[in-house]
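re: ur question from yesterday

yeah so i grabbed the chain u mentioned. its 84 aa long if i counted rite. heres the sequnce exactly as i have it in my notes:
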Amino acid sequence: MMGSGAGMGWMLIFGLLLIVGLTLVVVVVVRAIGGGVHRKAGPTHADDRPRRSRAREVLDERYARGELTTEEYRARLTALEEHE
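ran it thru and got these structure tokens back, copy pasting raw so excuse formatting
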């Protein structure tokens, strides 16, 4: 004898909760193995370094070419950082 339909309803609810719980466990395990979710603060280069402003890139290029002395570079870098 099976009893009333209420017993079947509880079995259905338990089954659904079991499926949802197992799905959540799988999602958590996959994210843990894959490194989780990463939120980025802003635009980045392909190698995930924070992107510099175009002005900073030009300043770095000029310093690398020897167009600026170290003192000039540092002074201009400080000025740029104050305005960002």
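noticed a couple things. Residues 22 and 28 are 10 Å apart (CA to CA). also Residues 51-84 form one domain.
anyway ttyl
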